[in-house]
Every structure is written in C-alpha cells, then in structure tokens.
Design goal:
3-stranded antiparallel beta sheet; about 110 residues; mainly beta
C-alpha cells in the first residue's frame, strides 16, 4: 500500500474591493475573474462579506475575485458560505462549483 502525505488541492476565492479596470496585469499565480452577480443577497465591499439584498435594487456586479489553488489544510472554512456558482441564471445543469464567501451569518441564511 502507498500512503500519500500530500493534501488535496481546492480553489480559494478572495473577493477584492476592485473593479475589472483597476487591474492591468495578471497575478503571479491564480486568476482574477469578473462578471458575476449575486441573487438573494449582495456583496458588501465595505465589510467584505455577504449582506442582505436591498429592496428594489438590481443585483450589482461582484467585485473582481482572485482565485488560487491551495491545499485543503490552508483553506479558510470558518465563517464561510459555500455559494453555488452557475453559468447562467438557470440552476441545475449550469452549476460550475462553489465559492467560499465570508459571512457573519449562519450559512443556512443564504440557502434558498
């Protein structure tokens, strides 16, 4: 039997406070992504976490997110919501993966 001492890799997501136009080069590792929207909640850039959506306000675009592969033992799992990401507004077959987004609420609050 062979036992591996390496940890499994996962994607870590850090939401920046910047817009797409604020970046002029790629990161050394990982990737910057943009063009995402949140339904049923919003991203509060001042607090750096998920917040309640505002009535009669269209969903604002998320700030640029920095995605980087990390080992499981380096992933922050405290005070996070596993937010599902879809290619379109349709749920189901358009599911891509989940982003771990910071929240001060219990994750169940954000589950529809």
């Amino acid at each position: 039997a062979v036992v591996s001492t390496q940890s499994t890799g996962v994607l870590n997501v850090d939401v920046t406070k910047k817009a797409k136009d604020d970046f002029n080069s790629a990161p050394r590792e990982g990737a910057y992504i943009h063009g995402h929207f949140m339904e049923g909640a919003r991203w509060d850039s001042q607090s750096g976490m998920i917040a309640d959506s505002r009535l009669k306000e269209l969903p604002p675009p998320m700030p640029v997110m920095f995605i980087k592969a990390v080992t499981v033992d380096r992933q922050d799992t405290k005070n996070v919501y596993d937010c599902p990401v879809y290619k379109t507004r349709e749920r189901g077959p358009t599911f891509v993966w989940t982003f771990n987004l910071i929240t001060k609420e219990k994750p169940a609050k954000w589950t529809v």
